[in-house]
């Protein structure tokens, strides 16, 4: 309810009908007297804050609920008038309807409480309705908050109202605390204090879930489109091998600009297993074409290395020039710090010159270390070259023509060696095929024997498995029989104990009856006769008997000086009127006295 109290500024159906302000004490007292209530003093304080209907109204709410954000304070939206200026305090005022009047609550009282708002709530609970309120009057009051889809009214002065949109619920919540009076009647059945709260309805929750699922689908579609947009393009499809495609690929392998694309296709074909006897020569020619690019690549590498050396040399020269200029700058700063020039500078100028000098020296030292590192690397490379070159064993060949001729001879030698390897492989394949065709009968008999042995082993394994299953079943049956035997033994022990207890109780009763018959003297006094009458009446009411403690507690209410021993001795003296029985087994064994005088008369 606090959210509603922080919500709407003022509610009115027709502002021309408002002739009373809540801040007017006289008008408030008159309204409360008409309702039969004692007027309370008003302070005229502000009731609502700047937020509307929902605390901290968030325009991005539609991102979660899928509902277009609508500000309930828009003019012309039902009960809500245009928002007042911020410097004017907003108060609740009396609302006049055709069939009833709504009086605002006391602003000094705390705002009504509400439950937690369910997700997608479009239904409100309205309690405290007047007994004579009809469904038409309720619709007249609450239809100003928005379109009503359903009203469910109960006989116990409450109802449930379902609106078309969620923001309409906030307007209805704002009416909580208002006192509703039908017409001008002062009867209690025609007035009541409204309590409006959020209601949890399955239809609202189902619609909310549908909207959430729709938003989730949209979000998944958006993410998928974004992933598809950011996904790198797929590589071009590799065509299938054919003689025509192989001829085209051979031409592409000879072209330097198309070599990278053609070598990828060649690698894919070889990995797919397209090389066979028929296509081996064609693939060999393509591999040889790929090998011919090695010389080109080596030349390109040498050219790039030369460019790199030139770049290093130019970088070293530029770095030397920069270091020379740094030395000159540092010399200028050192000359400025001498006494002839230093005394003529101010303190701030001296400080700046000192800072600049230190910074320049640091940069000079860093550049000099970098230049020295480059020179050390060059010296190490030169030393490696000197150690690797042995003039006594190796002679440098400066003629490039001889080197190219040697490289060509090496390539030709490699190609011949590869051809020889291919012929050897073909011969081995032919030998293997002939060996498979002329396989001897001995190998066939050996295979049959191995198959027979494998079948016998499988049969023996199946027999072992069946025997193990039977053994497990017999073990389980033996365990069940043992459990049943232990259970029957326990039952026999319990029955034997019960028989022994029954026999002992019967013997004790017989002995006591005999002793009581021998010892049963007559009554000694009138008090004993009175006690016997009371005890017999008490035990006659208890047909299942009563123990001596229960009987003594009852008799002690009549005579506080009597003891349990006296009562027990009296009962034992009259065995024809009272008898003692034992009930229960073991720890639950209990003695009870019963009235048996009528049984004795019948037997006589």
From TrEMBL:
Its GO biological process terms? ultradian rhythm
Q: Which InterPro entries match?
A: ENOX (IPR038876), ENOX1/2_dom (IPR056611), ENOX_RRM (IPR034140), Nucleotide-bd_a/b_plait_sf (IPR012677), RBD_domain_sf (IPR035979), RRM_dom (IPR000504)
What are the entry keywords?
Biological rhythms, Cell membrane, Coiled coil, Copper, Electron transport, Membrane, NAD, Oxidoreductase, Secreted, Transport
Q: Where in the cell is it found?
A: Cell membrane; Secreted, Extracellular space
Name the PROSITE patterns on file: RRM
One molecular function GO term is:
oxidoreductase activity
CDD domains, per this entry? RRM_ENOX
Cellular component GO terms, alphabetical: external side of plasma membrane; extracellular region
Q: What is its main location?
A: membrane
Is Transport a UniProt keyword of this protein?
yes
Q: Which family does it belong to?
A: Belongs to the ENOX family.
Q: Can you name this protein?
A: Ecto-NOX disulfide-thiol exchanger 1
Q: Which organism is it from?
A: Gallus gallus
């Amino acid at each position: 309810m606090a959210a509603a109290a922080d919500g709407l500024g003022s509610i009115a159906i027709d502002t021309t009908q408002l002739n009373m302000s809540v801040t007017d004490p006289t008008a408030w007292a008159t309204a409360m007297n008409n309702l039969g209530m004692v007027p309370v003093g008003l302070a005229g304080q502000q009731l609502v804050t700047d937020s509307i209907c929902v605390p901290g109204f968030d325009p991005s709410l539609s991102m979660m609920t899928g509902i277009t954000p609508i500000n309930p304070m828009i003019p012309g939206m039902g009960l809500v008038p245009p928002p007042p200026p911020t410097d004017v305090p907003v108060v609740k005022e009396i609302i006049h309807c055709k069939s009833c009047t709504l009086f605002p609550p006391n602003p000094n009282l705390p705002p009504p409480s509400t439950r937690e708002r369910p997700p997608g709530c479009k239904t409100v609970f309205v309690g405290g309705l007047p007994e004579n309120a009809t469904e038409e009057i309720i619709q007249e009051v609450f239809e100003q908050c928005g379109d009503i889809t359903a009203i469910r009214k109960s006989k116990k002065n409450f109802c449930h109202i379902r609106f078309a949109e969620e923001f309409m619920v906030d307007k209805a919540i704002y009416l909580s605390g208002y006192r509703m009076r039908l017409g001008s009647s002062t009867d209690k059945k025609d007035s009541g204090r409204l309590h409006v709260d959020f209601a949890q309805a399955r239809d609202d929750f189902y619609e909310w879930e549908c909207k959430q699922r729709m938003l989730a689908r949209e979000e998944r579609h958006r993410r998928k489109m974004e992933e598809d947009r950011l996904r790198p393009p797929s590589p071009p499809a590799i065509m299938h091998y054919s003689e025509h495609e192989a001829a085209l690929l051979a031409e592409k392998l000879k072209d330097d600009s198309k070599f990278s694309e053609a070598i990828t296709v060649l690698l894919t074909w070889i990995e797919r297993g397209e090389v066979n006897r028929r296509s081996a020569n064609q693939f060999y020619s393509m591999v040889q074409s790929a090998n011919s690019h090695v010389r080109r690549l080596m030349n390109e590498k040498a050219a790039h290395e030369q460019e790199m050396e030139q770049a290093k040399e130019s970088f070293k020269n530029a770095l030397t020039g920069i270091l020379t200029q740094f030395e000159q700058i540092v010399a200028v700063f050192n000359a400025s710090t001498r006494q002839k020039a230093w005394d003529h500078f101010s303190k701030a100028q001296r400080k700046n010159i000192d800072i600049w000098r230190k910074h320049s020296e640091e940069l000079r030292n860093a550049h000099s270390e970098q230049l020295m590192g480059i020179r050390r690397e060059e010296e190490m490379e030169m030393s490696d070259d000197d150690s690797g070159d042995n003039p006594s064993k190796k002679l440098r060949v400066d003629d490039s023509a001889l080197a190219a001729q040697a490289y060509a001879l090496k390539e030709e030698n490699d190609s011949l060696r590869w051809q020889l390897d291919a012929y050897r492989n073909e011969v081995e394949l032919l030998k293997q095929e002939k060996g498979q065709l002329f396989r001897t009968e001995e190998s066939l008999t050996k295979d049959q024997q191995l198959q027979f042995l494998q079948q016998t082993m499988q049969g023996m394994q199946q027999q072992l498995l069946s025997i193990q299953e039977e053994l497990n079943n017999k073990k389980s049956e033996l365990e069940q029989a043992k459990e049943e035997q232990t259970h029957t033994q326990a039952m026999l022990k319990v029955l034997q104990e019960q028989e022994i207890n029954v026999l002992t109780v019967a013997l004790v009763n017989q002995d006591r009856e005999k002793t009581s018959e021998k010892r049963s003297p007559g009554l000694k006094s009138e008090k004993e006769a009175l006690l016997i009458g009371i005890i017999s009446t008490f035990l006659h009411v208890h047909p299942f008997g009563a123990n001596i403690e229960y009987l003594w507690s009852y008799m002690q209410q009549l005579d506080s000086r009597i003891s349990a021993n006296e009562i027990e001795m009296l009962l034992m003296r009259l065995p024809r009127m009272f008898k003692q029985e034992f009930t229960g087994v073991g720890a639950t064994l209990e003695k009870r006295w019963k009235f048996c005088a009528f049984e004795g008369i019948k037997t006589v």
